[in-house]
Every structure is written in structure tokens, then in C-alpha cells.
Write the C-alpha cells for this entry.
Amino acid sequence: MDYETPQFYRVMQYAARADRDVVDMVSGSPDWDPPAALRDGLRAYADADPEAFQYPPSAGIRPLRKAIARRRDVPVESVIVTNGAGEANHLAMACGLAQYSGEEILLVDPVYPYYAGRANFLDAETTYVTAGPTGELNPEAVRAAASEDTAVVVVNSPNNPTGAVYDAATMRELVDVAESVDALLVSDEVYDHFDYSGRFSSALAVDSPNRVVTDAYSKTMAITGFRVGYTIIEDEALREAARTRHMLGTVTGSRPAQYAVAHALAATTPEYYAASRRRVRERIDRFTDGLDDIGAAYTDPDGGFYVMAQLPDVGGDFEAVYELIDEAGVAGMPGAASGRASARGSGSRCVPTGSGRRSTDCGRTWGEFDRKLRVQEGAGRTTEYGVRQSHDARSVSGTGRRQCRRRVADTDGIHDDADDGRTVGTDIRRDSARSRRQTRRVPRALGLITNGRSR
Ligand SMILES: Cc1ncc(COP(=O)(O)O)c(C=O)c1O
């Protein structure tokens, strides 16, 4: 596996060059509407005073931090608004490495490739704990792999790419493992609104200074382009380090985007989130029905956007994915990009978040994808996935810390009516009871296929 160089766009670049329309199931960008209130918030912002167009507090506008704190039941001080879950993960991993002894980051295989790439970027050693056949994570395997060399353990539930959802007992055990080796558990919960099992349990349910949570509105509100995420860090020293790093790395986030999210959080009913969850679940069902028709093995996800599938006679590498683009007009991601467990043998992983809408570039509908899936055949070989290696200073400067504090004391977001006390985005598990077909074992995985938009 090579996580040194960014290869995520390889598939998209190949698809863009293809001389046919291609269904994009790679990018993971939702193609459904954000909450209506989000658009209202943006419109209102356009007419705001010039001062609303200036730097927001580095840790995020107060109404948004308060809304997050209320939803997550944590002190508002513990919330740092970030540029998506990506930055939140980076802060958590980097600060965990800097604050805890040990040079190692423990990851789960199959892995969300950016964790691996980021670990390389941070010059950390990596150790992989292999998940079970359906993505389940045995905390005892994590315990066995963890040692005094471990500084950070990164987990993700609902999981990209396996679709596994870790229950309360698992999360408790994982926090316990982190405590036992004095490491930091980073729990990436970016798909928390996409739990189809009703078993999702946040790491926040376990009280411990050794755990942080990362999250974002990218998927929850279908706004991957807004770059609004957050981390919750209750340990003060770690939080200060993260704030400083955030300040020095990005200064702050986008104020209009934060405002619009805060506005949407206050005005959006739980039905929006439930409808998004149903939409993805229906697409997954449609996709897996197609997989059944062609005799593919796959994981039936308990959460998230992704399905790992092994198409008959199709490899799990980049060459296979290229061939799928050429022959079937479907772009997925190779399982090889997700780690050793996924790369074993041939296979690909598939992510059906798409819709039947037409893209601006060329038109393909989700229905057409079904057809493609049936006619697809062929494929070949692989490469890897990751980000370019570089170095990241781990030290935290006192000056930066002071600057950070000063910024936080600045004015908060405009229109405090966004902070009107209404609770939204509440219990996403309420209507998620589901009992579907049994998850099938996937010995090898193949392409990551995200949404149905075409490029
Ligand atoms: C597991 C996981 N974490 C983090 C991210 C990045 O989220 P964001 O776009 O909010 O940075 C993604 C995006 O697909 C993801 O799948």
C-alpha cells in the first residue's frame, strides 16, 4: 500500500478523460439538497454588514459552537469548529502525537485512506488492526496491538469503507484501550446521521480525557463544499494545542458557511436528517439488489455511504477500476486503496450515494447505473492511495496559544437568532430500525463507488 502520494483523483481524472459518460461513485459528494434553512442563511448573509465579512473567532462562531455543544451535550469550550472533518482529524491526530508519548498511530484495516496518508504526512509509524469480515472491530484485537509506543488510535463509526457501526460496548472498550496505554482515541463520527442499525454510539458517551470526537456537516447537510466540521476535545491541554494548530494552520474557518450551518441547525427538523438517511439506505438497497443480480459478494452496511463489493471476475485494483470506466461507464474506487484486507485477492469497494439527477457535464441517471452494473464485466490491476509525505512541526508555540485566545474573544457570528434554543438533528436513530438481508461475507473487496452523478 502506498499512502505517500495523493492518488484519490486518479480515478476521477481517468473518468474525466473517458470518451463516454461515466457515473461517478467515487467522490462521496451528496447530490441532494441541503436543508432549506441553510440556503436562507446564506441569502441573509449576503446582505450583512461589512464586519460580518471579516475574520470569525478562530474556534468558530459562538452560535454554531453552542448549537454543537447542546446537541452533543458537552461544554461549549470543548468545541472547535474546523474546516470539515478532515481538518478535525488532522488536528486530533497531530495533537495526539505531540501530547502523548509514543510515535505510533493505530488504524483499522480496511482504512479510510486519508487516515493512512495523514499518518504518513505526520511522520508517524502506523500499525493496522484488521477488522472482521463484515467490518466489525474486536476491541481485544486493538488491545493486543496497542502498546506504550501508541500515541493515537483512530476509529470511524459508521465506517468508511466497511459500513460497520460500533456499539456502546465497543466504544467503551476502545476508550479503555486508549486509557490503558495512555494514548488518544480519535473517534471520527462524520456519518453519525447515517446509522441504519440503531446501534451507533458516540465515543462521547464514555467520559474520558483520552478520547476526542471529530465530525462535520459535510454529509449530514449535504454540504461537502462548505468545509464546516468540528472536534470536541475536553482535555484542556490537548484542546489548547489543537486551537493553536488550527490558528496557525488555517487562521479560522469560513464565517458565512458557519453562519449558514448554525442557521440551518436551529431551523431544520429531524425529518430532514431522517429523509437523507432513508435516501441513502434506499440507494444502497438498489445497488445491492443489482449486486445480487450479478452474483457479487458485498457487505450490507449498517451505516455510512459505502458498500464493499466483489464483482465476479473483476479485480480490486486501479486497472480494474479503469476497465470498469471504459467498459461500463461506472467509476468506483479500488479496494486496494483501503488497505491490505481489501486488497487481498481481487475485488473493489462500492459506494452508492448517488441520485438519478443529471450532472452539468453529462447526464446519467441512477437507473442507468443499474443497467450498467448488469452489463459490466472485465477489469485488472491496482495501485494505491494516499497523500504526499511531508513534515508537520509538532511543537505548540506559546505565542500562537495567546493569539488563539485573543481571537476566540472576538465578536461572535452575526444574527444571534440562529442560537434560538431549538433542538434539531436530534436522535437520528429513532426511525432507523431496519432488518434486511444478512450481511454477506466479502473475502475480497473491489471498487469504491460513491454517488450516481456523472462526470
Ligand atoms: C471517514 C471520513 N472522515 C472524514 C471525511 C472528510 O470529511 P470532510 O469533507 O468534512 O472533511 C470523510 C469524507 O468522505 C470520511 O469518509
Observations:
- The domain at 8-33+270-385+433-454 is CATH 3.90.1150.10 (Aspartate Aminotransferase, domain 1).
- The chain has 14 helices and 14 strands.
- Residues 28, 84-86, 89, 112, 156, 160, 188, 190, 216, 218, 224, 229 surround pyridoxal-5'-phosphate (CB under 6 Å).
- The first strand starts at residue 23 and ends at 24.
